[in-house]
Design brief:
It is built from five helices and two strands; from the N terminus they run αββαααα. With 148 residues, it is mainly α. The longest helix has 16 residues.
Length: 148
């Protein structure tokens, strides 16, 4: 299945803004919020909790969804790259290809949290890395998001 990210050793402090919150000692609500806030201030809007990806909507464009970012995550394990929705999409795609089992990405959050945008980013990534679709097909897939 998915491998737990190995980006930081255990015993970290939330004030460090660690990329995987499972390594924080004595984790509680305050620690989670502190860690997310520290990362958010550095424009690190994605944070792992094991294999779960937590996203904090910045409500503005960060430029972290371009082709160079797609290339950075293509073919990589979650444990080898910083937290990002592309890492989650790559993990699902890899498992689908290796195990031939259907995959799902559950995207949840309150109204305005960025669920629709996240869905678009996943579809954008999958279209870009599969390379076997034409630009027209890619556009149709990306526009299908309204059905989702």
């Amino acid at each position: 299945l998915l491998q737990r990210p190995k980006l930081v050793t255990s015993g970290a402090s939330p004030r460090d803004g660690v990329p995987d919150m499972t390594v924080i000692s004595d984790i509680d609500e305050y620690g989670i919020n502190t860690n997310l806030k520290v990362r958010y201030k550095k424009n690190d809007i994605y944070t792992y909790t094991g294999t779960i990806l937590v996203a904090v909507n910045p409500y503005y464009q960060l430029g972290i969804y371009e082709q160079d970012t797609i290339t950075k995550y293509a073919g990589k394990k979650m444990s080898d790259v910083p937290p990002h929705v592309f890492a989650t999409a790559e993990a699902a795609l890899t498992y689908l290809q290796d195990q031939r089992k259907n995959q799902s990405c559950i995207i949840s959050g309150e109204s305005g949290a960025g669920k629709t945008e996240t869905t678009k980013f996943i579809l954008q990534y999958l279209c870009a890395v599969t390379c076997s679709v034409t630009r027209w097909v890619e556009q149709q897939i990306l526009e299908a998001n309204t059905v989702l």
